[in-house]
């Protein structure tokens, strides 16, 4: 509220029971629990290279060990569940099942301004959500959050939409093109036409300059804290691309 016009009408709903969800910690606890059970194996630094449907409807999955010169081995399974984030689409296509033909992916990401400045961080201990602009999608709601990153308290503001042809941070620039087929290009076009407002919003976001992001920040944080956040984030905004 500091720095805001005292005549401006403002409404807010507050709850004191909210918390962050640390998905990394949840994953570690889940894996730790599964490792105590029989017939569970966790294979890290591994890459699925291929699928083969066997005559008995089981699967043979070729997996490469990236820590040992890409040495490949085959795992036989009755069922295969693909939950690989940005890699899921290409793996699904690799199976050859007809259900995969009409699926497509469009790699849109989110970018946040970040501040580690104690003058800013120590004055903000909340998750504050605003309202999306008229015509903007729900996921674009601007918010300024206190987060703990790698054990250090920081303040984030965003999101700002980003675009990349990669499906993963360390993926290939050819991911989008290589996953586009004659079967899924039609559905992709249909989705774009049906959600044209979203397409326009994403294009406008990609075209934003650092000054534009700073102006968006000042609408939420009009006081002196805004300059503290932007001065750190302007040249070092962090991005998290998601498929």
TrEMBL record:
Catalytic activity: (S)-malate + a quinone = a quinol + oxaloacetate
The protein's name: malate dehydrogenase (quinone)
GO molecular function, one term: L-malate dehydrogenase (quinone) activity
Gene expressing this chain: mqo_2
CC cofactor: FAD
GO BP term (any one): tricarboxylic acid cycle
EC number of the protein: 1.1.5.4
Record keywords: FAD, Flavoprotein, Oxidoreductase, Tricarboxylic acid cycle
Pathway as given in its UniProt record: Carbohydrate metabolism; tricarboxylic acid cycle; oxaloacetate from (S)-malate (quinone route): step 1/1
Organism field: Leclercia adecarboxylata
Similarity-based family: Belongs to the MQO family.
Taxonomic lineage from the root: Bacteria, Pseudomonadati, Pseudomonadota, Gammaproteobacteria, Enterobacterales
One Pfam family recorded for the sequence: Mqo
């Amino acid at each position: 509220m500091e720095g805001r016009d005292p005549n401006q009408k403002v409404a807010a709903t507050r709850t004191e029971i909210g918390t962050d969800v640390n998905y990394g910690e949840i994953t570690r606890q889940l894996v730790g629990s599964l490792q105590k059970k029989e017939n569970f194996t966790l294979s890290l630094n591994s890459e699925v290279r291929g699928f083969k449907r066997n005559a008995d409807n089981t699967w043979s999955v070729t997996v490469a060990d990236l820590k040992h010169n890409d040495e490949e081995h085959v795992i036989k399974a009755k069922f295969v569940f693909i939950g690989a984030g940005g890699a899921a689409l290409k793996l699904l296509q690799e199976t050859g099942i007809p259900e995969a033909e009409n699926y497509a992916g469009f790699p849109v990401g989110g970018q946040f301004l970040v501040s580690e400045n104690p003058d800013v961080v120590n004055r903000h201990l909340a998750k504050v959500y605003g309202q999306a602009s008229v015509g903007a999608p729900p996921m674009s709601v601007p918010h300024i959050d206190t987060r703990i990153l790698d054990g250090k308290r920081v303040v984030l503001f965003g999101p700002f939409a980003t675009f990349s042809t990669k499906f993963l941070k360390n993926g290939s620039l050819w991911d989008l093109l290589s996953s586009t087929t004659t079967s899924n290009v039609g559905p992709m076009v249909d989705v774009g036409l049906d959600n044209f407002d979203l397409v326009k919003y994403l294009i406008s976001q990609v075209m934003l300059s650092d000054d534009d992001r700073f102006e968006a920040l000042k609408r939420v944080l009009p006081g002196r804290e805004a300059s503290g956040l932007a001065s750190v984030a302007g040249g070092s905004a962090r991005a998290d691309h998601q498929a």
